[in-house]
Amino acid sequence: MADNLLILTFTVFSAGISVLYLYRKRRSKKDSLNVESVRQENIVGDLGNLDHEYDRRKVRSLFQEAQLNLDHILLRESLDGVDAEEFYRTNHRGIEIFTRSWIPNKGSAKAVVFICHGYGDTCTFFLEGFSRILAKEGYAVFGMDYAGCGLSAGLHGFIPDFDKLVEDVIENYSIIRGRPEFEKLPCFLFGQSMGGAVALKVHLKQPAAWNGAILLAPMCKVSEEVQPPWIVIKILIGLSYIFPRAKFVPGKNLADLAFRDVKKRMQCAYNVVGYKDPPRLRTAVELLGATKEISSRLNEVSWPMLILHGASDVVTDPSVSKALYEQCSSNDKKICLYDQAWHSILDGEPDDVILQVLSDIKSWLLLRT
């Protein structure tokens, strides 16, 4: 009996691996036709193994100057009038979390904006420029890298529990909000892509704690374009319990799908601490679970909210942003859809679109501070 069970388990596992292999092979062949795909190794060279935070921190220090010298509309913003600092703090789980701040150095801040970055990203690349822009508008801005992302500790790109990631965000930002200089100021969350899902989960856990949120292409549901077929998803869920850290998940290069402007797409290679490998099994399962929960609880969202989404986004589904806008219980809500824009509306579109997105964000914040 035990031998038969072992044989059955091995057969199912082998079949699952075979399906994954064939799917990845078919997807890779299709992707190879995209001649404008990001080719990181041809731009910044081989960065080596970045699984551990100390290697990522070393690589960041080597490329930091090159990043800030990129010809990108966000990165042209100087630090004039802004005090920028960064620090590490070990949280209650024993994980060292990286945080960076941008504070206006003239007068008092009129509100605080807390950034929740996207999947595999960091608060130190394109969001660096965005944060400088907000700081010059009079806002104190804080960004953090989640465990396993950017400069924070943890296995690169590994999210074993989405709820614990959300709790890390609540813990870190609650400590900052408790500082005497910020405790009476309005506080807003800014969530980009997966960071939108993080922000929404924070809100569902703390319904009355925040003054509102700005959600850019929030990951309320993963688009069919980047999801594997349902049979592959079922196999991935099973394998995630056996090989949670494995990079088995088939998929496209997200920059190819997210950045409409080809020049800006190629600049993504300089996001050297960003996670660009195939998603780890447990991470993929956790993201699917988070979006499933959020999409089922849209009516519980009650905070003031600005939703911004590219109408041609194939990474996160703009129809779910529309559903969020329509089904949420908030009395203060606004949605902006940008015609022909892709997923990365803040950093991957032509400059005129990025400027419009920035203007919409500034206007919304100004009316609430």
Automatic annotation (TrEMBL):
<protein>
    <recommendedName>
        <fullName>Serine aminopeptidase S33 domain-containing protein</fullName>
    </recommendedName>
</protein>
<keyword id="KW-0472">Membrane</keyword>
<keyword id="KW-0812">Transmembrane</keyword>
<dbReference type="InterPro" id="IPR051044">
    <property type="entry name" value="MAG_DAG_Lipase"/>
</dbReference>
<feature type="transmembrane region" description="Helical">
    <location>
        <begin position="6"/>
        <end position="23"/>
    </location>
</feature>
<dbReference type="InterPro" id="IPR029058">
    <property type="entry name" value="AB_hydrolase_fold"/>
</dbReference>
<dbReference type="InterPro" id="IPR000073">
    <property type="entry name" value="AB_hydrolase_1"/>
</dbReference>
<keyword id="KW-1133">Transmembrane helix</keyword>
<dbReference type="InterPro" id="IPR022742">
    <property type="entry name" value="Hydrolase_4"/>
</dbReference>
<dbReference type="Pfam" id="PF12146">
    <property type="entry name" value="Hydrolase_4"/>
</dbReference>
<feature type="domain" description="Serine aminopeptidase S33">
    <location>
        <begin position="108"/>
        <end position="350"/>
    </location>
</feature>
